[in-house]
Amino acid sequence: MSVETTAGPANAAGAADNEVLATVAAAESVLTRRFGASIRLADPEDLRGSGKSTVLRVRVASTPFSLPRTLVVKSYAEPPVGELIDPFPHEAVSYQLFTALGQDDRICPELIAHDGAKRVIVLEDLGRVPTLADKLLDHDARSAERALLAWARALGRLHATTAGREADFDALTRRLGGRPGQDPLARKAKVALAELPEMLETLLGVTIGAEALGHAREGGRLLTSTQHRAFSPSDACADNNLITGKGLRVLDFEGGCVRDVALDAAALRIPFPLCGCSFRLPNGMTEAMVAAWRAEVSPVFPDLDDDEVLMPKLLHGQLLWVWLSTWMYLPRPGVPDGPITNRLASPRRSSALHARWQRLRDDAGRLKAPAVAEHADQVAAAIAEQYGAEAVHLPLFPAFS
């Protein structure tokens, strides 16, 4: 998670810990160099970063320039030794790319300044506005539906405006010392594809047939696909999407990369597959979201308007998300079947996974992919048998219940 604009009262200044003070000092230095005159910041407010970063809202206390009253600062520690993925260049380059597109095409906060050596970015502050998660966890179905469709359209617009910009993204990545072409999801997915068959057999007694395994590997190949490539935010959690007066705005690009857009579109069928806030949506909602996304991308990728092109890719992407989330969340021995996360409202692991495998079974059946449908049905049945009656019922998001 990145900029959580719904955070409570300021508390970082009271703690006055070294990390917060160092982040403020680094931001002042970066802004001063960017604008050529001294800029002073005050009243840092902790916005609770992802754990990989410190995220603060700060007041602009002194500046000779016309700057917003408040800004958001995000700083990164050096990644641990041996860590292959450094989130800083992914995030900084992503904001650079969108800021260069211009205001009409920008669906994220504007990048005000950044520094690769200090590992700091300074962003426009979008204010204390609700997130998509807030809408889904509230009790206004119409408002939640509008927010979901806005999210799907914004995702399609993001893909459409960044198609053909991979060379720019790679060049900016090199300039910040990152590795071009690196998809942070690919490493996890590779391990999940290798380990899940044995996991399912050991924990649920399910053996995967050769044909279903082949379909899963097709899903993995989407991570290296050379078709339909555009920018992906990678982390599509509901609390990383803000509902502002100017439309939906996307936050948190710690995994930002360029890849096949079908992977993000497939995630619309399992809203927020790698996040804890993943309850059930009303019938027809995911189809409406995919249609909204498709309307935005089809002018750029006309062949995706053809069901024979898009639907098999969506199924393979959906299968990859289901495999990856099962590898992540299926309770191991000694791990309770509790909520996916305790940070916000979250369903039980078993009920979230059971619903995903059932949805995969139904979508595979409609597409006449019997091997995938049978595989999904076997896993769903095994989850129900292992975890009992509660596992077969995933509650609706509160907004629709």
From TrEMBL:
It comes from the Bacteria. This is Phosphotransferase family enzyme. It comes from Kutzneria kofuensis.
